């Protein structure tokens, strides 16, 4: 093959990779700016109320897009979906409670420790402990003056959201092995929306009757769920899961940018350095993670979201942050 023909053959691959990277970054930007918009909506409907509205919108969108089959499921299938849905509800509520109390960038950096810990534990490599130490250094730097500077309750909610995110990854892998396409996620999101209703209604009360609040909540649901989900599906046809996971490791930085631009949240240089350490640790953990075949029943764990499962009957499953 001539040099010219090699160059021509490589153009579609390169352009597809660039396009996939752009789609991922666009989805991540939408996701974090949706979270920033949600934080601005808290005075109108409360953190739990906004989380509930976001879950309801996401559930409706996913149900319309996926149209999951409900009949013919086993008890084990529904057990996984129930646990998956409960995790989704608790994770979103705790994360929104966190960003109601501490800056969005700091909350995202603390939350990503959950998936990072899962990656380190499952990798079983000496290098994994290096990334864990780097992440802990970032957290220590973030709390250098004591986490009361950030509001200890907010820190606790962020760490709880991170632990739930790790659970989300495990349950997403199980759901992916039992349900085709994104049907498991659609069913779990519906369960999560139902479970969040009592807490959200108590928190928001009659404020939910405000049409402006409902319109803004719909925008949050679209920015945080529908748009990133669509862009991720398109991106995963152009780039590898490992590349996606590395790009998704930028979430804390994008969260900090969204907090600054939308909410006017300022972070000190040392706070930004701490977030950078966490991002570096997350990226390193993904890059050095062991590779496994992408099959329907043999998941390849990716630290930053649901595992991807591929079979002739399934399409790529999104692996971005569930927020």
From TrEMBL:
<keyword id="KW-1133">Transmembrane helix</keyword>
<feature type="transmembrane region" description="Helical">
    <location>
        <begin position="128"/>
        <end position="147"/>
    </location>
</feature>
<dbReference type="InterPro" id="IPR051258">
    <property type="entry name" value="Diverse_Substrate_Transporter"/>
</dbReference>
<feature type="transmembrane region" description="Helical">
    <location>
        <begin position="267"/>
        <end position="286"/>
    </location>
</feature>
<dbReference type="InterPro" id="IPR037185">
    <property type="entry name" value="EmrE-like"/>
</dbReference>
<dbReference type="GO" id="GO:0005886">
    <property type="term" value="C:plasma membrane"/>
</dbReference>
<keyword id="KW-1003">Cell membrane</keyword>
<feature type="transmembrane region" description="Helical">
    <location>
        <begin position="153"/>
        <end position="173"/>
    </location>
</feature>
<feature type="transmembrane region" description="Helical">
    <location>
        <begin position="48"/>
        <end position="66"/>
    </location>
</feature>
<dbReference type="InterPro" id="IPR000620">
    <property type="entry name" value="EamA_dom"/>
</dbReference>
<keyword id="KW-0812">Transmembrane</keyword>
<feature type="transmembrane region" description="Helical">
    <location>
        <begin position="214"/>
        <end position="235"/>
    </location>
</feature>
<feature type="transmembrane region" description="Helical">
    <location>
        <begin position="185"/>
        <end position="202"/>
    </location>
</feature>
<comment type="similarity">
    <text>Belongs to the EamA transporter family.</text>
</comment>
<protein>
    <submittedName>
        <fullName>Inner membrane transporter RhtA</fullName>
    </submittedName>
</protein>
<feature type="transmembrane region" description="Helical">
    <location>
        <begin position="102"/>
        <end position="121"/>
    </location>
</feature>
<feature type="domain" description="EamA">
    <location>
        <begin position="154"/>
        <end position="283"/>
    </location>
</feature>
<keyword id="KW-0472">Membrane</keyword>
<feature type="transmembrane region" description="Helical">
    <location>
        <begin position="242"/>
        <end position="261"/>
    </location>
</feature>
<feature type="region of interest" description="Disordered">
    <location>
        <begin position="290"/>
        <end position="323"/>
    </location>
</feature>
<dbReference type="Pfam" id="PF00892">
    <property type="entry name" value="EamA"/>
</dbReference>
<feature type="transmembrane region" description="Helical">
    <location>
        <begin position="78"/>
        <end position="96"/>
    </location>
</feature>
